[in-house]
Structure formats: structure tokens, C-alpha cells
Amino acid sequence: MKFPQELVPLINAPTSAFTEDTPGLTDSEHAFILALRDRWGSRMFEDALADLGEASAVRLCLSGHLSLRRTEFGVATCLGPHGRVAAGLNSPGYRKSPNTIEDEVYLWHGIEYLAAQENFTYQGRASKALHTMQSRSGAVYYVTGRARGHYPQSVRRLIQPLRAELIRQGSQLIVFHPDLRRTRYLEEMARGLIRVIPMKGFWLKPTRGSAALQSTADTSLPAHEAP
Following DSSP, what letter does each residue of 133-149 receive, concatenated? Predict the structure, then answer.
């Protein structure tokens, strides 16, 4: 779907650009706002178009409920100043960093891969950096990932409080990571408790010791392009 031209001037617009009163939200629009708050953090704009429809997506961007931000993956959307108010958040002038937005859309792409290709069921957001998903066997897995890759020490901090639960459930911390040179070390940090899925940008690569992962180019998880 072609990017709406009326929204081009709003990409990376400051929060101060949206000061006027805004119209009310429909139920589906409000649900999308709450999902951004509680689940996604940020989404690619084309996902917002698919979820909301073009009319609602454009209206929410024009009204300042959604903020458009350019990333290395294309144009993403997160809560704008009026969206933060509608979601019950403080600091309507808060502005996410580009790195945070890219981390959120990168990780959610990995979550969608697990749901589509491995039949994992999304459970919820355990913390800012961790989401939980349930496998077909019922075990709860923790999922994390950053667009530029986790440092080994940050993975160590993430897994330390999870060890007992992962051992009890026979599950793992799944880490999406863009740098193939660092994945071996991450897996060796906690043998059997960490599974690394190499993912460069929005492209999945084969992971050691498991079936090859197919490129997302011909699945329901398309590569995102800037308008």
C-alpha cells in the first residue's frame, strides 16, 4: 500500500506540532492505542494501516494520537502526544528515541515469526525488554531482541532471575540477534537455556541445531520498506 502523501510532512514532527483539541476515538482506535501502550510499544506504519484501515490510521496521525518516525526499517509509528493522553500516560511531550523504536519493531517482528512459523501463542509483556510466549507444549518462553544486538552482559542480567523458571518449565530465553559473530557466545553463556535466532533487519537466517528458518520475503511477515 502506498504511503499516504498527506502524512509525509508529519514524519519526525515534534510533539509541539499537535496542540489542538482532537476528536474522540472509535473502539477499534482506542484498542490500537492501548495495544501500543501495553504490547507493541512501536509498530511499522504499514501494520497500523492493516490493523486500522487507511482512514483511521491517517486520522490518528493527523490528530497527534500516533507519531510517525523514520527508522532504518522504514516509517514506524508510536504513541503521539494525544495518544499518550488517551492511553492514560503521563508526560504527553515524551518522545521515544530512534533506537528504542527500532528495537521495538525489530523484536515484535521476531515475535510474529514465532507465532506464524512455530505456533507460539503470545502471552504478554513481562518487562520493557521481555515478552512471554507459550509453545504448543504449554511451556512459557521469554523473548527478547534488539535491532543492534544485545550485549552479552545484558543477556546475562536478563536470564539470571529466569533460570529457575526456565529449568522448571523446560523452556528457554529466545534472543533475536543481528550479529551472527556474537550468537555462539550468547548460547554458550547458559547451555540449554538460551536459544539465539539470528535476524538481520527483518530477514531471518538459519539457526544452529534447528530447522532452517525461511526468509520472510514470501510469508505473512513482509520486509518493510520506507515510502
Answer: EE-TTS-EEEEEE-TT-
Q: Give the residue numbers spanning the domain of 71.
A: 5-96
pLDDT tens digits along 49-71: 999 999 999 999 999 999 999 99
Distance, in Å, from the CA atom of 44 to the CA atom of 42, rounded to the nearest integer, reads: 7
Q: What is the pTM of this model?
A: 0.81
Express each pLDDT in 25-54 by its tens digit. Answer: 899 999 999 999 999 999 999 999 999 999
| Cα(216)–Cα(207) distance, integer angstroms | 14
Q: What's 190's domain CATH number?
A: 3.40.1350
